[in-house]
Structure prediction request, 403 residues.
Amino acid sequence: MKTALLIAAACLLALLSTTGASLPFPILPPLFAAGAANDFNHFLGLPPKFLFGLALMINPLGLLIGSALLGPLSDRYGRRPVLLVTAFGAAAGHAITALALMLQSYSLFIVARFVTGLLEGNGSVARALLADRLQGPLRLRAMSWLNGAFYMGWLVGPLLAGFTLDWGLTTPFWIAVGALLLAALLVLVALPREASSLATTSWWQVARERHSLNLLRHPELRKFFGVQLAYTCGVTAFYEFYPLWLVEVARYDSRGIAWVNMALCGLMTLTSLFGGGPSAAEPLRRAARFAFGGALAVALVAVGNVWIGLLAIALFGIPNALYNSVVQGWCAERFGGYGQGAVMGLLSTTFCVANILMALIGAVLTLIDTRLILLLGAALSAWAGWRMLGWRVAPAAVAGVAP
Prediction:
């Protein structure tokens, strides 16, 4: 019973957290690609597409910092207090985001999205919570369920945004505030109090000395970081810019984007819930096959017509969900001795670095053609799959011990 409650608490927290994070996705493309000129989408006279790329980048920049720090901080001070602080703080960030949209203040919007991203880097803490308490096949299955909850949040958030905009542009963000306050209440009820392992150590010292990027000192983790970065660059190129493709090529509005996102995230959620179990196949070879599948879907969006692109967007969710399930379980088993919070933080940090890189590159490439950033993403994910096929894992390597 305690194990079931633990898994349920982690999954519900993931759902509510990503619901708030994903709300802007169907809102921003029409504002920058099809909206009337105003102080928000013509800030400092810059091109709207360039401002759109920056708006996409700033939240992942906060996530990058938060993901690198929050996991290790929770290793030292406990999962519960870190989750509480970040949930309340992210709720405040969404409230400021709503205010920025009311004032049409692009600069305040950027600050709010950064702070919100910083605090929403707590996904690594939820993953570490399960990695701490569970072992073997149950851990792998629970990680898959947790991924399903994260994916469901990406579905619920854009869907709420697309269908509540009639009540005002800021309405989805106030919903995010309520969702995150509910997440904080859930943490209070479901997770027991924890004793800090180093109560006299300052948070700044822990952040400086134990952040997730310190793991890159270990050769195998450094190699894995490069491969994982390439794959996630493909993923982020896809999810950051397929909404813009929908506006430009399919002529979709916010509600149409929400429907397509619902199909994508629904498939990812179902795949995570029912397809993330153990397998006798070697994990990295499985991950390579799923990386190739994701790369093919992204390439079809770029080169296909509207209907092929729409189908590929939805089907991308299947290989991506399976890839994440396999890789996260493999990392928990192989590198857990370095600290599950730090390891899961490195996975989240890698994703955030990819967000930033592809948002910056995409801000330039979309000035030429949005399909270019999608093709680049497909090539990077395919390269990651190829590298995984050639990866030779040393049999003597164990979790926490570099081979």
About this structure: Residues 395-403 have pLDDT under 50 and may be disordered. The first helix runs from residue 2 to 22.
